[in-house]
Design brief:
The protein has 402 residues and is an alpha/beta fold. α7 links the parallel β7 and β8.
Length: 402
């Protein structure tokens, strides 16, 4: 693909906020996220103050927009107190502002310690809880390094309901060490029986810089993994969960709005140690990727030693990290890597509005993929076909610039 030049149609998309909490009780052997085992009490007050300063420095990037969603990820955000979560939300509303129907998600462990905080999280303003179950099998939970057991996992959803949560996601893995099709189905059925509004059901993969990468467990063979996937999709569909993304399943109107904003190439601020953001600057005809310094100590040191700049210079932030300009030639792949994860795709006009590029410039590639039965445009949305979802990497290679 030849270099694509930007047009003048770049528009501001919706804005979300990601808040990273970098501590966890124990580092799981499969986890490659920026998480750090907390040996003692975490510096909660200092971190909340640092997040406030971080957001104040990024305020200019909102460009007048209010937040459509907030996601507390980690690490283990539920290690923070409800008071801390409430303060972060108050700061976000004061500094940026909330849309009236804002979605606020917090990732939580199902352990008893975290369950005791669920009511406080709900009272603080969290309206969507994402519980990291991973499995209901005690042996698998032990292999995965989880600190909870089956009984705590089962109890967590009931505790969340009593706390007032009517929008709950369960994270569940499949393709676990030596897992059979029957065992995977039983795990998934148990999750379905708890009737969450949303299920993130995804395959365990071995990533670099993890304990599993150094000492990999025995995972199911490819044929078994394929059978697990097919059986699980059928089970979920029969229970009324629509698959709208590679590993996301939801009841009607309960899609994860924060994640949809990522997949639809929206904007998001990222605050906290190692947090990433993506911001559109129409006045400068630019799209930026931004990130903050990874280590919690470095992040907290930056907060203690820096003051809010009086002149932000467009997009200055003193929390380490940096930013990269998304070049026009890279934008088609960046956009499609997100959009084509969605089974329903995204409106065609989003491509022009959110990249500043003309859709017509993609017509040769799109036509070829259409002829191969891999993509289609239906009801104004560009999306992969069933075949295209099976060969998504092949589809995406088409959009790599030369």
């Amino acid at each position: 693909m030849s270099l694509i030049l930007p047009s003048l149609s770049l528009q501001l998309p919706p804005l979300a906020l990601y808040v990273h909490v970098p501590w966890c009780i124990r580092k799981c052997p499969y986890c490659d996220f920026n998480s750090h085992q907390a040996n003692n009490d975490i510096p909660e007050a200092e971190y909340v103050n640092a997040l406030r300063l971080d957001l104040q420095q990024d305020q200019v990037l909102a460009q007048g927009r209010k937040l459509t969603s907030i996601f507390f990820g980690g690490g283990t955000p539920s290690m923070l107190s409800a008071q801390a979560i409430g303060q972060i939300l108050k700061d976000a509303e004061t500094i940026i502002g909330f849309e009236p129907d804002i979605e606020i998600t917090l990732e939580a462990n199902p352990g008893t310690f975290e369950q005791e905080k669920f009511s406080g999280f709900r009272a603080a303003g969290v309206n969507r809880l994402s519980i990291g179950i991973q499995s209901f099998n005690d042996q698998q939970l032990k292999l995965l390094g989880r600190v909870h057991g089956r009984e705590e996992a089962l109890r967590a959803v009931g505790v969340a309901r009593k706390a007032g949560f009517d929008n709950i996601n369960l994270d569940l893995m499949h393709g676990l060490p030596e897992q059979s099709v029957a065992a995977a189905k039983a795990d998934l059925q148990q999750a379905i029986d708890l009737a969450p509004e949303h299920l993130s059901w995804y395959q365990l993969t071995i990533e670099q810089n993890t304990a599993f990468y150094s000492a990999p467990p025995v995972l199911p063979e490819e044929e078994i993994l394929a059978d697990i996937q097919d059986a699980g999709v059928e089970l979920l569909a029969a229970a009324g969960y629509a698959q709208y993304e590679i590993s996301a399943y939801a009841r009607a109107k309960k899609y994860a709005r924060h994640n949809l904003n990522y997949w639809e190439f929206g904007d998001y601020l990222g605050i906290g140690a190692g947090a990433h953001g993506k911001i559109t600057l129409p006045a400068e005809d630019k799209i930026l990727r931004l990130w903050k310094t990874r280590l919690p100590k470095h992040y907290l040191d930056a907060a203690q030693s820096q003051k809010i700049p009086t002149n932000l210079g467009g997009h200055q932030n003193t929390f380490g990290g940096g930013s990269d300009l998304l070049l026009p030639a890279a934008l088609p792949l960046e956009f499609m890597m997100n959009a084509l994860r969605l089974h329903g795709g995204v409106p065609v006009n989003y491509f022009t509005e959110r990249t500043g590029l003309d859709w017509q410039q993609l017509e040769p590639q799109w036509h070829t993929l259409t002829q191969q039965g891999l993509v289609e445009i239906a009801q104004g949305c560009a999306r992969p076909t069933v075949l295209g979802r099976r060969f998504l990497n092949r589809v995406l290679q088409t959009f790599i610039s030369e």
